[in-house]
Amino acid sequence: MTLLVSLLYMGGILNPRGNLHDLPIGIVNADRGAAFDGAHRNLGSQISHAITTAPDAHGTVSWQKLTPQHASELMGSGKVYAVLQIPADFTASVASLTHPTAKSAQRPALTVLTNPGVGSMASSLAGSTAQQAAAQASRRLGHTLTTAASSSTGHTPPTPAAQLLMADPIAVTTTVGHPIGSHSGAGLTAFYYTLLLVLTGFISATVVSNGVDAHLGYAVTDIGPWHIRRPPLSITRIRTFAVKATVSTVLAALTSALLMLTTIAVLGMDATHLPLLYMFSFCATTAVALGVQAINAAFGSLGQLVGMLIFFVLALPSSGATVPLQAIPGFYRFLAHFEPMRQLNDAVRAILYFDARADAGLTRGWTMIGVGSALALLTGLAVSSYYDRKGLRRLLPDHSETP
Questions:
Q1: pLDDT digits 0-9 by tens, 234-272
Q2: How far apart, in whole angstroms, are the C-alpha atoms of residue 303 and residue 3?
Q3: What is the pTM of this model?
Q4: Which one, of 232, 198, 16, 12, lies nearest residue 125 by Cα?
Q5: What are the pLDDT digits (tens) for 315-347?
Q6: Within a domain: residue 401?
Q7: What angle do CA 43, 46, 49 make, to 5 degrees?
Q8: Of residues 137, 130, 128, the one with CA closest to residue 169
Q9: Residue span of the structural domain in which 36 resides
Q10: Where are the transmembrane segments (predicted)?
Q11: Structural domain tally of the chain?
């Protein structure tokens, strides 16, 4: 387990930039164009085309040409991680730099809009990638401007200050495009809240499983120096699974309320849609607990290790919560299609940061909770029923503790 955990955890985070694949970044060209170099031109369109068709952009970045309204919608649903904006007066600002003195020229500027709701690393990677693309566009444009200025005849040559300005003409500013609350952990509260949901479901299911087994006489209770062993009851495996599943479901209602009380009421975590958040927390915790009970029913005492493998060891690196899915190796992106933590994290993120929009991951979260719960119940019942039919009883009828 140590070897496996080390390989899986560290293997997913060592080289985010080297593993970049289709990082979603939008580009908005609002440039109206202006008279430049003896003709009406739209430099914003040229820069937008150059950025989106650059050889180094293929495969690593998924540039999307958007309108301002569409960009706002996609940022509000977490579908793009950053947006590069080209202003309406971009060409006019560039044209002003070609004036011989350029004393009153306003340096053209591009704006990078970040989206902290998708996670701090995802927003940072997308923002820095957009900044690099804008810087490269500035150098290309600067080369064009200086070449045109040096080859022009019959005009006063630009001053050294103007030449320096034309060499790197574009200023790049960064601002938050889709703000989140100050008590949102820079976009990490969704991940930690999801982790608490999974951890709570796992722990409560483990406690319930051990507690039920102890009360049925199939396990020993050791509390300090006290050793308690009840006589085993004659009960089928399928009934035992049904009891554990029922108790786990009831307990999830309490733990979900306590989780919200602690994180929101006591600690002040930014959260809206509280009834929806509670219902989702309850259903998510229940789904995890039912999954753990089904695994325990199938594997017995090894179930805890198998459960840890499914719900934590494989789930954390493939959740896309701390390191975005577009920056992890392909194996983890494959796991993300069905690993529970990714589905739950996207839904919690949608509730906390994206106004509970269905297309931000909430619909997928609800769907996967339903599928996971049904699969857990069917698996637990089927395995327990099979063991019962085969006569694989947990204890022999004459089993008793030796004094």
A1: 899 999 999 999 999 999 999 999 999 999 999 999 999
A2: 19
A3: 0.89
A4: 16
A5: 999 999 999 999 999 999 999 999 999 999 999
A6: no
A7: 150
A8: 137
A9: 16-176
A10: 190-220, 241-264, 276-299, 306-332, 366-387
A11: 2
With residues binned 3-state (H G I as helix, E B as strand, rest as coil), the percentages for the chain, rounded to 5, are: 60, 10, 30
Largest CA distance in the chain: 111
CATH number at residue 148: 3.40.1710.10
Tokens of 327: 């920056």
218-225 LR contacts (CB < 8 Å, sep 24+): 218/394, 218/395
Among all chains, which residue has been given the structure tokens 């955890």? 9
Could you give the CA distance from residue 246 to residue 294 in angstroms, rounded to a whole number? 12
pLDDT confidence tier of residue 220, bands split at 50, 70 and 90: confident
- How far is Cα 383 from Cα 388, in angstroms, rounded to an integer? 9
Query: Which H helix or E strand runs over 109?
Result: strand 109-114
* 192: its two tokens: 């930690």
- Of 176, 209, 234, at which residue does a domain stop? 176
Distance CA 284, CA 289 (A): 9
> Which residues have a Cβ under 8 Å from the Cβ of 83 and sit 6 or more positions away?
25, 26, 27, 28, 66, 71, 75, 112, 113, 115, 130, 177
Check whether residue 51 and residue 89 sit in a common domain: yes
